[in-house]
Amino acid sequence: MANRNIEKILTRCITDNKENVYRLSYSYVKNKEDALDIVQDSIYKAISSIDLLKDPEAVKSWYYRIVVNTALDFLRKQKKVQVVDEETILSNSPGTEDVYQDIDLERTLDDLPDKYRSVIVLRYFEDLKIDEVAEVLNENVNTIKTRLYQALQLLRVTMNDEYSKEVK
């Protein structure tokens, strides 16, 4: 009976967070099909390992951790070779309207090491609190604060370097 209750909680978490989880997956792989595969794999992993969930209150961070780890595993397997989807190619090709929607920031984020990118994505794109990020990444809160600070410093330095190159 208790297991059935946890299944309901997990199902509700998966349903309520489907857009966020897709966006989180997409932020790692930059490809619609791969992001959907990651979401699907994550759901399968969560359902098949539901017995490992000790605290039903922590189901969201537990599930997000599965999604992040699945995305990172995917990237490792792909050796970071990214297939660019048609929409991205079209939006960056000449002859289309110039839209610079944070392309420099996206590229800079992509260049960050995974441990920093994960913290930035979860904190600012998924709007998780520091303690939630720590729970998702299975790290100490102070470690997350340090990584967040270091990641922001790296982003700031890189973005300033890019800006100074453009000015010269």
Along the chain, the helix and strand elements come as HHHHHHHHH
What portion of the residues fall into strands of 2 or more residues?
under 5%
CATH architecture descriptor text of the largest domain: Orthogonal Bundle
CA-to-CA gap between the ends? 67 Å
Overall pLDDT level: 80
- Tell me the helix content: over 70%
List low-confidence stretches. Answer: 89-101
Layout of secondary structure:
Layout: H1 2-16, H2 18-29, H3 32-48, H4 59-78, H5 86-92, H6 103-111, H7 114-125, H8 130-137, H9 141-167
Helix pairs in contact: 2-3, 2-4, 3-4, 4-8, 6-9, 7-9, 8-9
Fold and architecture overview:
By secondary structure, the chain is mostly helical. The protein has two domains: 97 residues, Rna Polymerase Sigma Factor, Chain: A; 69 residues, Winged helix-like DNA-binding domain superfamily/Winged helix DNA-binding domain (Arc Repressor Mutant, subunit A, Orthogonal Bundle), CATH 1.10.10. The chain contains nine helices and no strands. α2 runs parallel beside α4 and α7 packs across α9. The protein is globular and about 60 Å long. 24% of the residues are buried.
Briefly characterize the structure.
By secondary structure, this protein is mostly helical. It has 9 helices and no strands. It has 2 domains: 1-97, RNA polymerase sigma factor, region 2, helix turn helix motif (Rna Polymerase Sigma Factor, Chain: A, Orthogonal Bundle), CATH 1.10.1740.10; 100-168, Winged helix-like DNA-binding domain superfamily/Winged helix DNA-binding domain (Arc Repressor Mutant, subunit A, Orthogonal Bundle).
